[in-house]
Amino acid sequence: MISRNFETMEFGDFDDDLFSEEKPEKNIDEHYEARFCNPEWFQSDSAHQISEEEYINLIRYQADYHYLRKEYGKAAKKFEIILRTVHSNNSTTNREVYEGIARCYLHLGQAEDALKNAHMLDSLSHTVDHVTVSSSLLVNVYLSCDAYKSALCTGFRLLSLHPYNSDIWLKQAYIYSLVYRLDLPFVKLHFTKLEQLDKKGALEHNEEVKNKTGETGIQMTAVSLIRAQIILHSVKNTALGFSCEFNAKFQEIIRKDLAVIPVSKAFLDIAYKHVENEVYSCKDRDPPKDFVDRGSSQFCDELSSEYVQNDNLDGYERRWFHWLNDITS
């Protein structure tokens, strides 16, 4: 009988040579020279000399070149050439092209064409990163169409993925101001570059809006600003350099615009306390559901409704502002 001392045996005690094969060395061309290209070499018409893949890359370079030069009409035409050439199964290239076309038409003020291509991009978005890009673009396109409630709803879809993003909350506050015709002069200046900084006039205007439409829209606008401010404050100690200046700047913008929103100090105290509890306790909560790729067999209607297809603004507002029913301004 053959015995072996397993206590002193080293795990995996095999000779590596048993599993390794020597690979032949590749011959290096002694006459290899790096290729040098002339500036804007991709503008030349050489489609008959290259493969389809190289041709698509060539047109993409041309499209990006025109976009960089703000020649959006020319860029859109180049992107559309790619769309006619590339196979429909090439989702990566198709996503890039639909995004490029949508952004070109957005700059050109052709909102309907921008919206059509933004929706095509969204239909090909299967991951968190993809949905983040397509939703961010859709928000801007909806704003260009004056479809403010659709923009709000898409913004809340973004917040389902990134609930502690101050930029999204600040933009939601701006969109709420458009829905309810409120005047947030400093936030408006940030998003539109239109300078109308009349604090007294803004407060009077917002008081009139409150008398006509009630408090709910004003409260949701205020809470969106408060949430953005508290998120910024929660990360201020980790902000460095430019980001530190950015953080302080936007907290000040929010503070100034909150001053022209007609809500009581009691309401603000309750709102700050509630949002602070949510933001600062987020680490103690159960982690959110993992995002599941829509192309995966694990993807189900429930996640589709929550992350991608939910366009029920009332449902989103109940999720984020349900506690407003328990307080009065």
Please outline what is shown here.
This protein has 329 residues and is an all-alpha fold. It is 61% helix and 0% strand. The longest helix is centred in the C-terminal third of the chain and has 19 residues, at 216-234.
| Poorly predicted runs of 5 or more residues | 297-309
Distinct helical segment count? 14
Helix content: 55-70%
Compute the gyration radius: what is it?
27 Å
What is the H/E order? HHHHHHHHHHHHHH
Dominant shape: elongated
Could you characterize what this model shows?
This protein has helices at residues 52-68, 72-85, 91-108, 111-123, 128-144, 148-161, 166-179, 185-192, 199-213, 216-234, 242-258, 265-280, 301-309, 313-321. It has a domain at 159-283 and 292-329. Helix 3 packs antiparallel against helix 4 (111-123). The chain has 329 residues and is mostly helical. It has 14 helices and no strands. The radius of gyration is 27 Å and the shape is elongated. Residues 297-309 have low confidence and may be disordered.
Helix and strand layout, with pairings?
Blueprint: H1 52-68, H2 72-85, H3 91-108, H4 111-123, H5 128-144, H6 148-161, H7 166-179, H8 185-192, H9 199-213, H10 216-234, H11 242-258, H12 265-280, H13 301-309, H14 313-321
Helix pairs in contact: 1-2, 2-3, 3-4, 3-5, 4-5, 5-6, 6-7, 7-10, 10-11, 10-12
Supply the key terms:
329 residues; 14 helices; elongated; mainly alpha
